[in-house]
């Protein structure tokens, strides 16, 4: 268990630094092109395209299939070296082919996601796409190398290398501002040089992120060589497993496509694609720092126990992981919710925009706990080689997301369209998570649900006074008209005030949350003390 705590601490620290530098990257990008304008939405759609393809590759094939297969290959006489060499050769070919196909289809892809863009906005988004789509290849290599490192219990590099990507992006966006000026939110000023600097910077950062992982490969103890003899790599088994996850991710991408098409109607004057992506980045802070950092080492252990047929240990691992993750995400979620206005001020251009954007972040936060629990439950199915069941309960979520998106388009005003779509996604995720837990509980013969539900009840009880304390702090500091919303008119200072305000309000909420849990004598607090010790010098 100490190794899990150490791995979680390493992942958590790396994710925290990565997400903070990612926020700084977003701040600089907003300073360059804004967050509410048509150019900002054009770049957001184009830069999201490789992320969408990467999601299909990573979640649809690598996370669900490759880690369990690599864990199994460790029993081979060569420790899995030949198997992994074949896998890497095959993966590289697939990533190159996917990149080539995506670039050939760039105009069609942009139109598919943003059919309500104006003609000049579509042209700009397509130009950005040609610069951004090569990221698919580098994203694929990054995921393949990183997931292999995770399977071999080398957890740190996969989490830390995105920091380099963020640093390169920050530098590139600052160069853009120095060359062309900031707040370039008019459509008629963009020329090929500006497009190349912005899009090229985004792709260069991903390329460096993937390249740096190669330096960590020595920790696996494996030597790689190109091997095109793919017989023996288990393509039949991988194909049958990956087929369901591929369909699952495709279904999720369809839901995302519908969401983007719906909110593109608000592009220009209201929160739309760029703003939703920025809010999602903030939302991902607690999810990545806690759910992924704690859940990833557990997944490797769960896969090992499942491969050995130790169902009792799998049940215990899943239940402990859910309780540990929920402890953190409930507290951090309520802290972000009450600090939503200063948090969104970080990536908006005025206090008025922050007030308009805050509901988008709050709507996403409604689904923080279900998404974090689903991350764990879904991977328990993957550990048993079951990718069909996650596909089936994901279909429910996808159907609900699509339905809620069209309802939002019909009834929500344009100013709140993005928030309504985000809320629909959160509700759909809650339903999906309940179904997934019910199925897994029946399959494993229990998940320690009474104990886990009692823990969740404690966390939510503690969140109530924590939320009031944080909200009271926000009101005392002037609420949307106070200094936390950044009203000085100086871009950097306003965003800094937003960040400081978020920290102060969030800290008050988290402290109250922790005190109430102490009063309730929550046994899960031992998890906190264990992880904190991992960050201390000498640990």
TrEMBL record:
Keywords per UniProt: Cell membrane, Cell shape, Membrane, Peptidoglycan synthesis, Transmembrane, Transmembrane helix
Output the superkingdom of the source species.
Bacteria
Q: Where are the transmembrane segments?
A: 7-33, 53-75, 87-110, 122-142, 163-182, 194-217, 238-258, 278-300, 321-341, 361-384, 391-411, 417-440, 452-476, 496-520
Classify the protein's membrane topology as the record does: Multi-pass membrane protein
Which regions form coiled coils? none
Entry keyword Cell membrane: yes
Localization per record: Cell membrane
InterPro entries in UniProt: Lipid_II_flippase_MurJ/MviN, MurJ
**NCBIfam families the UniProt entry points to:** murJ_mviN
Its name, as the record gives it, is: Murein biosynthesis integral membrane protein MurJ
**The species this protein was found in:** Microbacterium bandirmense
């Amino acid at each position: 268990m100490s190794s899990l705590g150490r791995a979680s601490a390493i992942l958590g620290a790396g994710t925290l630094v990565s997400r903070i530098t990612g926020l700084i990257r977003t701040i600089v990008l907003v300073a360059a092109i804004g967050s509410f304008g048509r150019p900002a939405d054009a770049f957001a759609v184009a830069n999201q395209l490789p992320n969408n393809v990467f999601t299909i590759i990573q979640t649809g094939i690598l996370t669900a299939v490759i880690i369990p297969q690599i864990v199994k290959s460790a029993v081979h006489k060569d420790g899995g070296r030949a198997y992994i060499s074949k896998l890497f050769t095959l993966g590289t070919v697939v990533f190159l082919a996917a990149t080539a196909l995506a670039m050939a289809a760039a105009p069609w892809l942009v139109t598919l996601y943003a059919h309500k863009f104006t003609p000049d906005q579509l042209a700009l988004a397509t130009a950005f796409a040609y610069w951004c789509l090569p990221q698919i290849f580098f994203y694929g290599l990054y995921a393949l190398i990183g997931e292999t490192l995770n399977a071999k219990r080398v957890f740190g590099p996969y989490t830390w290398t995105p920091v380099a990507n963020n640093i390169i992006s920050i530098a590139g966006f600052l160069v853009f501002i120095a060359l062309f000026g900031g707040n370039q939110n008019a459509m008629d000023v963009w020329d090929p040089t500006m497009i190349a600097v912005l899009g090229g910077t985004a792709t260069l950062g991903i390329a460096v992120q993937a390249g740096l992982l190669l330096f960590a490969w020595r920790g696996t103890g494996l030597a790689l060589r190109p091997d095109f003899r793919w017989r023996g790599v288990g393509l039949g088994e991988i194909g049958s497993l990956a087929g369901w996850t591929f369909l699952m991710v495709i279904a999720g991408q369809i839901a995302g496509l519908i969401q983007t098409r719906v909110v593109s109607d608000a592009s220009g004057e209201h929160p739309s694609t760029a703003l939703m992506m920025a809010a999602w980045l903030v939302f991902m802070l607690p999810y990545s720092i806690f759910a992924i950092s704690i859940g990833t080492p557990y997944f490797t252990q769960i896969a090992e126990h499942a491969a050995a047929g130790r169902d009792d240990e799998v049940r215990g691992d899943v239940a402990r992981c859910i309780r540990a993750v929920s402890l953190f995400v409930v507290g951090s979620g309520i802290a972000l919710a009450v600090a939503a206005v200063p948090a969104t001020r970080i990536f908006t251009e005025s206090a008025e925009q922050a007030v308009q954007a805050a509901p988008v972040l709050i709507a996403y936060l409604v689904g923080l706990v279900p998404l974090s629990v689903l991350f764990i439950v879904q991977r328990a199915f993957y550990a048993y080689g079951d990718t069909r069941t996650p596909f089936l309960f994901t279909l429910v979520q996808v159907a609900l997301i699509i339905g809620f998106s069209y309802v939002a388009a019909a009834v929500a005003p344009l100013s709140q369209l993005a928030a309504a779509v985000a809320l629909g996604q959160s509700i759909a995720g809650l339903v999906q998570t309940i179904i997934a837990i019910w199925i897994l509980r029946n399959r494993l013969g229990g998940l320690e649900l009474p104990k886990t539900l009692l823990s969740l009840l404690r966390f939510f009880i503690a969140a109530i006074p924590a939320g009031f304390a944080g909200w009271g702090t926000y009101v005392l500091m002037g609420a949307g008209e106070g200094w936390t919303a950044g009203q000085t008119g100086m871009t950097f200072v306003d965003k800094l005030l937003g960040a400081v305000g978020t920290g102060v309000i969030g800290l008050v909420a988290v402290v109250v949350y922790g005190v109430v849990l102490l009063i309730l004598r929550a046994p899960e607090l031992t998890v906190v003390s264990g992880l904190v010790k991992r960050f201390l010098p000498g640990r």
